[in-house]
Gp28/Gp37-like domain-containing protein (Rothia koreensis), 377 residues
Amino acid sequence: MEMTLIGPDLVPRGRLDWVNCTVVQKLNAKGTFTAQIVGEGRAASRIVPGCRLFIRDHDAGAYSVLITTIERSMTSKGILNLNLSGVDDLVALAQRITFPSPDRAADQQNVADYYTDSGSAGRVIGSMVLRNLGPNARAERRWFGLVVDEADTGGRVEVKSRLKPVLDEAATLGDLGKVRMVCRYGQDRKLHFTVEAVTDRTRSMVFRQETGTLGDWTVSLTAPETTAFILGGKGDLKERLLGEYRIPSEDTWGWRAETFKDQTDAEDRAALDKAGAKETKLMAGSAAVTLTANERPNENGTSKVFGRDYLIGDIVTARLGGADYTDQIQLAEISWDDKGRNTKLTIGKTQDQDNDSPAWVRRVRDLDKRQRGMETN
């Protein structure tokens, strides 16, 4: 693995000697990293606020991360330690909000208006980024060095937003359109934002003990904070439009937890129901599998590696306890040290509300029951 220091001006400042490093990549969300650097190196002395790292793992992917914490310390023996941490470059989207009219200054916005668009997920997300923080944004809102690569891909989506974090809105669109967002430093010394279609690798990427690709694994079920909520649409007092929406997890966990949410932009029942369906999906509990992916070569001398053969957001299969669990890779934790590379994956997320009890979630519950049964025997 090679680690290059990139200055605030996006100009490379040299290679860094590292002791260990961990990158956590999340699907359509802000990832993180930590790294221990050899403090005596020449390039290490050039690390200042605003720098980032470009991490290239040979042919197994590349990662672009922004340094947000710099910690230098000296031991009693005179050894200089340098610890870095930060976030990946999708943080740019988290630090901008959706202006109803991106071409106008902040104090010229009409708070009654919304930013609206429709089309393929790739085009809608790309346009929103382009206009709110990319080259087409107002000068004071542009993210330095960011360019948006056109990508007309993914399912059809619609956005209606006002003063909300761009990353939150883009993540929702990405989930609906089945795409992933990537922001990475390029050879042209620019930060390239693009949207890519995820790939269904259900059959080609199967983690199982028989092939040696499956290491340690765990299954987790998490209860939602809310199982029933009331949405308040347009109107005041007695004339206000209201709707109640339930999350199927209420039946799973055996309790009802209520809350109220404002949805004042919903002007009729159809709009309120659409918003209710979206909120229901976001607020559900989770069922996930976390596993260690063994990336060592098999008997044929080949292996499948994250970042090359499959990516964040791709749909894969884990064969656990005699059953197959298929879903998207929501999180990947890649770590490097003197022993080599280690990869942990989280497959699965919020329960699919199109079905009260999706087949794979039911199997996770069944496996959880079997595990508890083994513990009591």
